[in-house]
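Weekly sync, protein design subgroup
Attendees: M.S., D.O., the rotation student, P.L. (late)

Item 1: inverse folding check
M.S. brought a backbone from last month's batch and wanted to see whether the design step gives back something sensible before we order anything. D.O. pointed out we never logged the input encoding, so this time it goes straight into the notes. Structure tokens as presented (899 positions):
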């Protein structure tokens, strides 16, 4: 270990020892599994909670040494001596499987040793570490949810014992143990031997509780004294003790922690180091941990040798008049120029206040706050000139900022945000400051990002130009640095022929926005409020008028499982879960009116929240202007933000009412919606070349009914809706790497039935099975997957020695070519439609892209022309072995235009 990797030691030296399984389970039950999962379906709640807790411990306790002990699945000396030891424990939830491996992988990347020993428990490792730590003169902090750890408490060793979730972790010292159990810490194992430990399946003496046990221990000086005077103890409890004395002796033998193991790791190896940044970046990308990544690096800081340096740049020239602008570009604009817009927050977005330019040998800044008409005209000329090659970070955002000032931006040959994304699409952040730090080791001294992907500059000081010039310099250097990397990865054509042109299309769509019927939006808000009030009243009536907070899980647990005594749901740390899936199952089983009202309340509340978000998003022009992100989804799909218009509910009648508020704007005749039918399954048919799937599409069959007839061995007309739903879920699930467990959960069937269903599917559609196997095998060799159009997703975890990380990467390898190809196809369609509208001089325009659907605003007299060109360009966006079926609808509102 080099001196540079060690953290500066604190006084006194302190060893933090964590009971790995105990804390992982606590984290698992504290954080909802459904809220922590990767795009490929790997649950990560235990990992996230564990790391979060660890970072909190390190920040609060400032340890100099850290180690984590884990149990093994192999038998221990305790289970060999007593076969019922820890018997009867609940089955480990499926969602927990694999998360211990991932936690250990994170610890490895954090340079924190994890220790296991065959034949012994983590508790014995912890006890040995406590003894070794004390002997080395260290203070010891043991983090464990196991009360057996209390026996380790001394003047030098404390136990941090979690009470609620993963945040409430008070220290237990000798005084705390004595206050709670009336015995000294070294006597706690005596007390536990008498009382028993349910978690370990160690039965105690019937009728003897902690108070009685503590009284005996204090009277006779401990368990040995109790057993010596066993015949002096009178009454039923005395008889019970004598009858179960063998259990007591066994318990004491088994709950006593060993402190003299020969550990494979010494104390010196536990010195807290800075994490391996590269390993953490790669791992957290795979686990999709973003905020946690920032917390970790903020806590540990940068490696002294790797700390980014402030960008050293040449002095910049202030271009204050038209002549200076023309002269500077005539002298320096022949080669690539980095451009950056300095902004200030404004109305939830940003306004541009200046433009910085960086050439190979000179830098310049133009203040838009102090500019006359002639100077602005000269600036407009160089910005719009295609002959001046420019690089920007976030072309779309910069284009919109300048367009708001009446300035056109052309000649942009590189968007370093998109370039960095195409090189590393799984990276969580592509902000300029992050990319410059990673690739150039440059610090831009940026506090936080502003709107539109620009940098928030420190405008309180006298110099606002220098930070912007540094950013422009970083953009230019990044463009030169990343270009060969992008070309090597085959992404240069995607940048220039798809993503950059698409940025311009998206900018126009965002600026156009979509018209909103605000009166109907207000009406919807009132209607959902009335539904909430009615459902609340019905819920209260169902429990004899008692008023409870229907949004409080704690109060719902009392009502459901105590007052109404309904069947228990899944056990979690805070009781029994009240999540949507569990309550839906409970409603199906019981049909209780309280649950009916509660579900109605929840649905209406969610819908009202959506409506409330839309109301806030309506701009002064009466339209909603969403923002499309090109660098969020690793597969290439666009994301809609502020507000998210890709998440407008459509499955329920009430949800579909929300789409009615999106209407055709003044001066236009109708909205037109066009979407692809089953595009991902068509891509699956194309890539797998499965003859059965190709036949179904060639003949215009209902694919899922066709597949169902083959899987279930019945005629197509005999395929029930239930059968069709099952094969539909499975067909799409296969494209996402869905496991038999995932399918069973989705369809609410047994894992065995799901496994049989998948087996029958593959028996009939063997080419699909062969393709899915081949795509993972090829990705493992190449290191990446590729879409039909060459979009790559690099998956280094395919070669990981960690099974869970490999599984995540394998599911991504299955999904990326299919979903990524679908994303590329709709993007190509958008480019074709946009170009056709311009070439034909049509007034109609694209407004929204929602996954596989486009929404256009059609001008009067252009309906037939626009429908024809939309069908043409969407239908020809890719040359597949099966036809691309495009469905079109027309109507005043988005809902009316549905088809």
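Designed sequence read out in the meeting:
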């Amino acid at each position: 270990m080099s001196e540079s990797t060690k953290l500066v030691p604190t006084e006194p030296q302190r060893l933090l020892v964590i009971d790995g399984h105990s804390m992982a389970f606590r984290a698992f039950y504290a954080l909802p599994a459904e809220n922590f999962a990767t795009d490929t379906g790997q649950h990560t709640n235990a990992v996230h909670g564990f790391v979060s807790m660890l970072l909190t411990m390190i920040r609060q306790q400032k340890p100099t040494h850290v180690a984590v002990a884990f149990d093994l699945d192999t038998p221990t000396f305790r289970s060999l001596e007593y076969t019922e030891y820890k018997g009867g424990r609940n089955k480990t939830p499926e969602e927990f499987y694999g998360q211990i491996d991932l936690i250990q992988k994170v610890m490895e990347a954090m340079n924190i040793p994890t220790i296991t020993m065959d034949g012994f428990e983590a508790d014995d490792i912890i006890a040995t570490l406590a003894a070794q730590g004390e002997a080395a003169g260290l203070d010891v902090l043991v983090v464990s949810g196991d009360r057996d750890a209390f026996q380790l408490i001394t003047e030098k060793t404390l136990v941090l014992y979690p009470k609620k979730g993963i945040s409430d972790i008070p220290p237990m010292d000798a005084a705390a143990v004595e206050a709670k159990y009336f015995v000294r810490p070294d006597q706690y194992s005596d007390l536990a031997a008498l009382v028993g430990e349910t978690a370990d399946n160690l039965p105690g003496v019937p009728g003897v509780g902690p108070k009685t046990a503590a009284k005996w221990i204090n009277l006779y000086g401990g368990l040995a004294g109790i057993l010596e005077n066993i015949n002096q103890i009178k009454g039923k409890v005395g008889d019970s003790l004598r009858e179960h004395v063998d259990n007591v002796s066994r318990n004491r033998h088994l709950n006593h922690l060993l402190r003299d193991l020969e550990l494979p790791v010494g104390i010196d190896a536990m010195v807290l180091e800075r994490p391996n940044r590269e390993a953490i970046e790669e791992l957290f990308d795979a686990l999709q941990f973003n905020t946690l990544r920032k917390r970790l690096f903020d806590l540990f800081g940068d490696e002294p040798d790797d700390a980014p340096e402030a960008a050293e740049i040449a002095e910049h020239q202030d271009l204050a008049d038209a002549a200076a602008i023309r002269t500077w570009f005539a002298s320096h604009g022949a080669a690539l120029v980095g451009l950056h817009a300095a902004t200030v927050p404004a109305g939830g977005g940003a306004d541009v206040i200046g433009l910085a330019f960086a050439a190979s040998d000179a830098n310049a800044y133009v203040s838009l706050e102090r500019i006359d008409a002639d100077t602005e005209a000269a600036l407009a000329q160089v910005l719009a000139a295609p002959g001046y090659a420019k690089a920007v970070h976030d072309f779309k955002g910069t284009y919109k900022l300048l367009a708001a000032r009446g300035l056109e931006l052309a000649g942009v040959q590189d968007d370093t945000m998109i370039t960095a994304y195409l090189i590393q699409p799984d990276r969580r952040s592509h902000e300029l400051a992050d990319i410059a730090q990673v690739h150039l080791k440059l610090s831009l001294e940026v506090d936080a990002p502003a709107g539109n992907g620009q940098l928030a500059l420190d405008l309180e000081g006298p110099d606002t130009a220098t930070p912007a010039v540094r950013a422009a310099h970083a953009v230019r250097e990044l463009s030169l640095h990343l270009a060969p990397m992008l070309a090597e990865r085959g992404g240069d054509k995607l940048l220039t022929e798809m993503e950059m042109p698409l940025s311009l299309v998206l900018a126009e769509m965002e600026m156009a926005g979509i018209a909103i019927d605000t009166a109907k939006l207000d009406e919807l808000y009132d209607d959902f409020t009335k539904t909430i009030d009615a459902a609340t009243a019905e819920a209260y009536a169902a429990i004899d008028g008692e008023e409870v907070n229907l949004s409080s899980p704690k109060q719902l647990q009392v009502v459901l499982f105590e007052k109404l005594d309904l069947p228990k749901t899944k056990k979690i740390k805070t009781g029994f879960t009240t999540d949507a899936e569990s309550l839906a199952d409970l409603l199906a089983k019981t049909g209780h009116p309280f649950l009916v009202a509660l579900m109605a309340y929840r649905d209406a509340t969610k819908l009202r929240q959506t409506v409330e978000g839309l109301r806030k998003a309506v701009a002064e022009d009466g339209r909603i202007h969403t923002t499309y992100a090109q660098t969020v989804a690793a597969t290439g799909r666009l994301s809609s933000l502020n507000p998210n218009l890709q998440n407008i509910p459509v499955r329920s009648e009430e949800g579909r009412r929300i789409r009615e508020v999106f209407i055709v704007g003044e001066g236009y005749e109708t909205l037109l919606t066009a979407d692809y039918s089953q595009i991902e399954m068509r891509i699956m048919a194309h890539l797998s070349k499965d003859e059965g799937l190709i036949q179904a599409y060639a003949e215009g069959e209902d694919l899922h009914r066709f597949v169902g007839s083959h899987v279930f061995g019945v005629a197509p007309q005999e395929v029930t809706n239930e059968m069709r739903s099952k094969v539909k879920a499975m067909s799409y699930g296969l494209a996402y790497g869905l496991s038999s467990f995932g399918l069973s959960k989705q369809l609410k069937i047994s894992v065995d039935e799901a496994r049989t269903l998948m087996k029958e599917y593959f028996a009939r559609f063997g080419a699909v099975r062969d393709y899915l196997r081949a795509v993972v095998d090829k990705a493992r060799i190449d290191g990446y997957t590729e879409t039909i159009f060459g979009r790559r997703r690099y998956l280094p975890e395919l070669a990981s020695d960690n099974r869970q990380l490999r599984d995540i990467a394998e599911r991504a390898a299955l999904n990326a070519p299919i979903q990524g190809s679908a994303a590329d196809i709709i993007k190509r369609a958008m480019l074709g439609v946009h170009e056709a509208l311009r070439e034909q001089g049509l007034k109609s325009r694209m407004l929204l892209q929602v996954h596989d659907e486009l929404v256009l605003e059609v001008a009067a007299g252009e309906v037939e022309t626009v429908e024809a060109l939309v069908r043409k360009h969407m239908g020809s966006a890719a040359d597949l072995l099966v036809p691309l079926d495009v469905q079109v609808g027309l109507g005043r509102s988005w809902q009316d235009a549905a088809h």
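Discussion: Confidence is low (pLDDT under 50) at residues 446-462. Residues 125 and 278 are 30 Å apart (CA to CA).
Action: P.L. to compare against the previous round before Friday.
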